[in-house]
Amino acid sequence: MGFFVSRRGSNAQVFWSRVFNYPPILLRLLARPPKGKPFTTSELSARSGLPPVTIEAISHQTDWTGIDVPTAHAFMRACNTDLADRNHCRRIYMYLKTQPRTPLKRFSYLRRSPQWKPYYLPLIERYVEYLINNGKSSTNTTLRGDSQKK
Question: What are the extents of the domains in the chain?
């Protein structure tokens, strides 16, 4: 008996391509209830059952290397994302596709958080650096709005 692989790829192939395309840092930046405020680390910890230190470590990673499957699943569930669910991934894809290319405008809801400068801005900068280094973005923008005007 052989394995059935459809023309568009197996479910496993689709899942692993999503894992590759949606790193933990992106899921952390998108972690919020629909139309709500971003989840805090303590909220993600309570939702996942993972210690806050683990949530922080995963949140800064640009790939899933070194994260076991149960931990990754708990993190995704806490972030309101399931990479095995087509609807969740479609929501992420459409958000990234329809939002402005400038990272600050893309994650504008994070600007209203009191944690904007100390927490979210460095995360966005790290995510953009990841995109540029992996050839996923041709846009090299100034994140802080610090133009070189004199």
Answer: 11-133
